[in-house]
Amino acid sequence: MNALPPSNAVMPNSSYETTRFNALQHGVLSRHAVLPWEDRSEYQALVDALVAEHVPNGPTEGHLVEELAGTIWRKRRLRLAEAAIYREQLRKDVTSHDANYIAGAALMAEIGRPWGKVELPKAFAATVADTARDLRDVKRDQAMTRRAESILAAGEAGAYARALAELREDTRSYWLECLEDPDDQSCKPTAEALEAWLYRNRRAFYEDPIAELEHREAIKEQGLGLAYATRRLETMARYEVHLDRKMERTLAMLIRLRELRRPVVPV
Q1: 45: phi > 0 → left, psi -120 to 50 → alpha, else beta; which?
Q2: How far are the Cα atoms of 55, 179, 189, 196 from residue 163, in angstroms, in the given order?
Q3: How many Å apart are CA 38 and CA 70, to the nearest integer?
Q4: Cβ distance 25 to 69 under 8 Å?
Q5: Partner of 9 for a Cys bridge, out of 5, 65, 117, 129, CB 3.0 to 4.6 A?
Q6: Which of 115, 204, 193, 124 is nearest to 159 (CA)?
């Protein structure tokens, strides 16, 4: 025969227990724990879960469970605040002239030389597929430009026209714009001038873009690292330590009260 529970045993599933814990839904702490724009049902679900876990007996233990709920709720706010700080710092980084150059420092270890300004916003927004597509496009431009350079280097008759036809359309259009610029005396419709112009712009046209695209993940890590290093998190970190200690003390008090309630078994 199964032994009957002692007369003072707590029955968490009884209707009595449901009624007894209704006070936690309407207590002073519960009423003021949730800010107007927060979801009260989420907070109440947290309270209910803690009640089911700790089964408080009496107003003191009920108060401690409410304290636990409030502490956990505030720690949840800290996660939201932390994310908001990171997003705001990233916004500052992508709109800051200096931050884009600092992000380029990520490539010093990758390519062995200092780096100029990088496209930090594009690095954050790009997917793996975006990067692969952009890299293919730039390498195609590189291959077309190198074919044009080879034609110019050979120096055969009609090299200028044939090299110009090999260039990608936007590169060719840029060259034609340079020819029309009266202030740019280096641009002339000759094979020598075109070859020199392509050589001067090879880094801007494809060498630097390829390096940036191939190391886009390093750039993203650098940019995120800048955001994570913000000092605005120091106050939050101290507050979280305070909440952690409060939670530990509250749990310790609950456990102690439960031990005091436990019937003494005769030796």
Answers
A1: alpha
A2: 83, 16, 12, 13
A3: 13
A4: no
A5: 5
A6: 193
R_g of the chain, CA atoms, integer Å: 34
> How is residue 145 written in tokens?
């430009």
Instruction: List pLDDT tens digits, range 76-90.
Output: 999 999 999 988 888
Classify the C-alpha dihedral 110-111-117-120 as positive or negative.
negative
Torsion of CA 203, 209, 215, 217, to 10 degrees: 150
Give the closest residue to 33 by CA, choosing from 4, 88, 72, 90: 72
Q: Could you report the per-residue pLDDT of 207-239, keeping only the tens digit for each?
A: 888 888 988 888 888 888 878 888 888 889 999
Burial class of residue 123, CB neighbours in 10 A (0-12, 13-18, 19+): buried
> 53-84 as b/e, with b when 16 or more CB fall inside 10 Å?
ebebeeeebbbbbbbbbbbbbbeeeeeeebee
- Within 8 A by CB and 6+ apart from 195, the residues are 149, 152, 153, 163
| CA end-to-end distance (rounded Å), the chain | 25
For residues 26-47, one letter each, b for 16 or more C-beta atoms within 10 angstroms of the residue's C-beta and e for the rest, the string is ebeebeebbeeeeeeeebeebb
Are the C-beta atoms of residues 152 and 195 closer than 8 Å to each other? yes
Question: Residue 207 has which token pair?
Answer: 């060498």
The amino acid sitting at 99 is: A
